[in-house]
Request: fold
Amino acid sequence: MLAKMEFGEDAVVLNTKRVKSGGLLGLGGSDRVELMAAADEMAMGYSAPESVSAPAYMLQPAVKRGNGEGEAPAEHRVDTYSPGMSSLAARTYSETRNVATAEPLCEMDQLRNELKQLAAMVNGLMGSRTDVPVAEAAIPLLMRFGVDEDLARGILADLLSIEDPNTLVSALAAKMQAFAHPPVSHGRQVIALVGPTGVGKTTTLAKLAAKFALEQGKKVALVTADTYRIGAVDQLRTYARIIGIPVEIALSPEEVSAGVEKHRDKDVVLIDTVGRSQRNEDHLMELKSFVAAASPTDTHLVVSASLSGEIQREVVEKFTVLCPTKLIITKLDESADRGCLVNLPLRTGLAVSCTTAGQNVPQDIDFAEPGKLARNVITEVV
Ligand SMILES: Nc1nc2c(ncn2[C@@H]2O[C@H](COP(=O)(O)OP(=O)(O)OP(=O)(O)O)[C@@H](O)[C@H]2O)c(=O)[nH]1
Ligand SMILES: [Mg+2]
Reply:
């Protein structure tokens, strides 16, 4: 009846369930009947908004008072689902009997609940209507994890159902398959790290050096082309001494070539470079001459996840003059969300080679792996 009152005669009840509200560890509290209903938006006369701004998907609670037919006055919590997000409009109702004041849910609990509700709703819809695009309903959820809308749309396009958060992780992992290329472990490698100032190039280089030398038993040498910043050489020398590997200091592109050549017997030569602003073209061109002199097998562009999405986009765009072949995403531990793990590779076509999430050398680094990247993005609910 409630559904028909709200949605009209075309309303379809998708799901009902009895839930406990309030109380402690399942004791006390009150029983609620949760009802999920939907109606075709055409039948409801909805006009969907042209665009839905992020975070578009929100089950926003609003309190509505009313009389259930033939019943004593009751409180109805009406959760609205933005009709613009789906060809169907759907709402969930919770009719609370013996009204209890529930504790506010923590953000992650809310997210988990929303995902469950989304799964139930989408699967309910799918049960009765085979033409409902599941992706439509899940896109805003991925957007809440920082994934750009158009990319979320593509990632979820083939999704047929959403059972739980792991379904989303799997869909994302499948997409990231082509964008996770851990550093190659065979053949001689000359790897240059480039990027803006302070993003963690030198620290990441030291982590990589330790991984290759100490964990994989490779012969490793370092060449630093950062003689600009005071303390930069000492920083790298200290790491090199601890790991027990040689380091060359290059003041010019020629010295970079010479340093790489000197260590032609090494499995891996790692090249540290000076951090440069993406907005200074002259500096970028100068940096390019140092990198080119090394003839690197790979040039990894280091981008910090703690930068805003806008700055990240500017960085990858301006650093294209350095011809990067891979991405390293740093400072995941400092970022508000990890959508850049999806946005940057999908936008640039460059695969992620590693991610870092902390200052500890060498522990805080992960070689890229599709499942791990996906879990990093949808991190809190799985
Ligand atoms: N929280 C956090 N800090 C990091 C991470 N990686 C590096 N840092 C810190 O970021 C700061 C800058 O790191 P560097 O490695 O010197 O950065 P850089 O890109 O070489 O800097 P420049 O050479 O000056 O351009 C240091 O305090 C590092 O400890 C990370 O993954 N998480
Ligand atoms: Mg540095």
Remarks:
- The two ends are 36 Å apart (CA to CA).
- Residues 197-203, 226, 229, 232, 275, 330-331, 333-334, 356-359, 364 surround guanosine-5'-triphosphate (ligand 1) (CB under 6 Å).
- Residues 10-103 have pLDDT under 50 and may be disordered.
